[in-house]
Every structure is written in C-alpha cells, then in structure tokens.
Amino acid sequence: MVKSLRNLIALVVFLTVAASATLFADEFSKKDVEKWNKEFMTVVNQGEKLFHSALGTNTVSCDMCHPNAANTHPETYPKFQKQIGKVVALRDMINWCIQNPLEGEPLKLDDPKMIALEAYITWERKGKPLEPGRH
Amino acid sequence: MKKKMTRRRFLKRTAVAAAAASLPLSVVEFSWGSGSGKNFTFAYISDSHLTHIKGTKFVRNFDQGLKKAVTECNFMSPKPDFVVYGGDLAQLGKREELDHGLEIISRLRHPVKWVIGEHDYYLDLGRYWQEKMGKLNYSFDHKGVHFVVLNSILTYEPWIKQWKTPQERMANMARLDNPKGSPFIVGDLQIEWMKLDLAKVSKDTPVVVMSHSPLYKIFKPWNFWTDDAEKVQNVLKHFNNVTVLHGHVHQIMYNQIGNITFEAMMSTSWPWPYPVSYIKKPNQVPKLTVMMNRADPFHERDATGWSILDMENGRVTNHYKLWENKDRILKYDDKLGYPVDTEYQAPASRIPPQDHY
Prior knowledge:
The structure holds 2 protein chains of 2 kinds.
Chain A: H1 2-24, H2 30-51, E1 79-81, E2 86-88, H3 90-99, H4 112-123
Antiparallel strand pairs in A: 1-2
Chain B: H1 7-21, H2 23-32, E1 40-45, E2 52-54, E3 57-58, H3 60-74, E4 83-85, H4 95-105, E5 112-114, H5 118-121, H6 127-132, E6 138-142, E7 145-149, H7 157-161, H8 166-174, H9 188-199, E8 207-211, H10 229-236, E9 242-246, E10 254-257, E11 260-264, E12 305-312, E13 315-322, E14 328-333, E15 338-341
Parallel strand pairs in B: 1-4, 4-5, 7-8, 8-9, 9-11
Antiparallel strand pairs in B: 1-12, 2-3, 6-7, 10-11, 12-13, 13-14, 14-15
C-alpha cells in the first residue's frame, strides 16, 4: 500500500517535470551556446595537445606526419580501408596510427582522449562538406 | 597536314640535321659556357629525422629509411661522383642522433657533401655539426659546375634568445605547425659571402645552390619559407643557369622563378601533406608542381625516397627514387624554360592519388 502510494507520487512528479521540460526544451540562449562552445573548445584544445605529444612508446607524435591534422580526411569516414579489409571509422584509423607509427597501445573507443583527438581533427577540417567513402 | 618542301625549309632541315650530327659537342659547348663542363651524376639523401628514444634505442621506422637509401646508393651504376646529405639527419639535434646518423652514413662508399637542417641546428646552434661534418656554408667546383651550400635555416635573434633552455628552443623549431615558430633566413652576412664567392664565377657557368629550406616562399604556417629569399634570388639572377636543390618539405615540389629552377628532394623518413590539404589557410603550392601520390600510411616507406641527379649539359635531370611508388623524372625543358615531369606534367595524364585535398 505504502509502496504503491510512493509510486503514484513519483509518477505525478515525473509527469509535472516532463510537461514543463517539453514546454521549454528548445529554448536555449546565446549564453548556453557560448557555454557549450567553451566546453567543446576545451576538448579541442585537449585534443590538440594530445595530437602534439607522444601517445605511443617511441616519442613520435601525430603532428609529425599531420601538421594541423592535414591529410587525415575526417570528412571521408566511415570508409573502406584496404588493409583493414572493411569499412572503418576515423577512430579505428587513429588507433591504427597509435599502434603502428607510434608503437603504442590502442585507446578504448570511448576514451575521453579518443573523443578529444576526434574533436581536434574534425575542428581543423571545419566547414569541409561530408564525403563518406571518398578516397 | 603535310607541308610542302620549299628551298628555305630544305636548308633549315639540313642545318638542323648537321647540328644534330654534332649534337653532343655543340650542345655541351653551348650549355657549359666557357668552362670545361662534363656530364656527371650525383645522389641526394635528405630529411632522415633519426629519433633517439633512450639508451641505444632509436625509432626503427626512420632508421630503416636512411639505411635503405644508403644501401641503394651503394648499388648505383654509374657511381655517383658524390652524395649530398640535405639536412635534418637528427630529429632533436641530439649528439646521439647525429652520431647514429654518421654511423649509418659511414657505410656509403661515396664522398658526402653536407647541408645542415633546422633539426640538426637548434639544440646547440650547429656546434656539434661543425665539429663532425664541417662548415655550414661553403662552395666547390665540380666538372664545370659551381656548387654553393648555404645554411638557410637561421632565424631572427630575438626568437632564438627567448627560450629558457636549448631543448625548449629545439622543440619549438621542430614543430612544423607551431604558431610560435619563426621563419628561416639566410642572413645578410651569408648573402655577402655568397656575393663574394660568386664574383669569381662567369655568368655562363651553371650554378647549383643547395640549402635545406626552399629559397623561395611557399607556405608560411608550416615554414616552407625563407624570409629573405628575394635577396638570395637577386644575387643569383646574373647567371644564365641556376638550380636550387632543397629538402625540408618532404614532398615532390618544383618551381621556376625567372632564371632559377627550384627542386625539392624527398625525405627518407615520412612525407608531409601538401599545403593545399590544410583548408584554413590559402594554398600556395607552385602551379608547376605535379604532386606526389598521396601517402598510404599502411606502407611505411610510401611517399618517401631519395634522388639521383644527372648533370647533363649543365642542367639537372632529377630521378626521384620512390620506394612504394613508380619513380618520377623531372627534366628541364629548354624550349619551355622550366622543369617538367616526363610522365605526369599534362593534367590529363595524372592519376587519382595525385589529387591532394
């Protein structure tokens, strides 16, 4: 009895919150955008630092072959990579580079470092139209 | 349409045929100027970026590139008269790296001419290099050609002095896309030296200048750039036939500015993207350049290599030896007055991997 009453109260609270959230969900302000952009740029800057540091075991860094992340072509992924033998995402290629030229251990695909690297690489290519599959 | 043979055309053809019969001598005399020139071959190895990890460990990939170039050079036939090392033997200017490079290059069976790069210089400002390899700028004559070697990777004093340690200075110069970088200069002192050196050389003598950085302006954000390039070009403009050979850019690149032909040498370590691939800045790749095949990172030696240079009648024919790609040949076209790729110069003959974006 007590349990079902508690459930009923919880349901009422949930519906009230849900209703008010529906009303205001899309109304974000300039201030919100600035805040979110700041969050994004913080991650881009972390990625920029990682991109210019030794992520493997041999002191080699990504920027040595890819100044300003050039020649990484994030806008062309997912695409078929001949040597992997299937269609892969950009993060699979980032890990390939960490494992081979950098002689390191691959990052987990949801590692914050991986997200930061992707943020930096795509930010340097901002404005380029998407061309998945291009070679 | 077949042209009618007129008396004038007949005489012209006869003259051409007569000239062709004695071609080797007449062309040689014309192109070599008043000097006693003779065709010869030399080789060019550059930008090995040997990287010290710790103890006796170095980055395997980059070691392999230089070792491969040295081995192939030793198999050259005909033998090169000398081999030029074009700079950036080391990655961070460390003695371990320069010693390691000297050890690998000691296996070369040919004499070596050294050009210094910024990765060899900015740790100790060239001290160890001078001790081991010799002078940073010098000239020599070889079979009718006057060679000038420049230290083109100097920069402005305030930039050099702003760092707390030599290691910090080296690291900041080593990073190509560094917003805190500084453009290269040859410097007035060296330009004055070059003027004096060239004062003894007749203007019909072929001149070859070898520097690490390109002696023209390509792309400042990555320091494909020599800030006082015009001053250097100005000293060279009095000569009929000038070729500048440079390293630093890790890619096939060539250009013609007035009387000066510019040709980039390959790197043995890794390729760099063309500036056209960085969309945030305007592209400044010379229009003449047919770009190299896009690097395939799965092949370690792709888009790397070295060069065999034939000095023919005072002009350089550059054979790019590309390890994972078909070789490319760059030949100076006397009629056009600039170098052309013997296979890919016409836009219709290019292949998809030469499209950089």
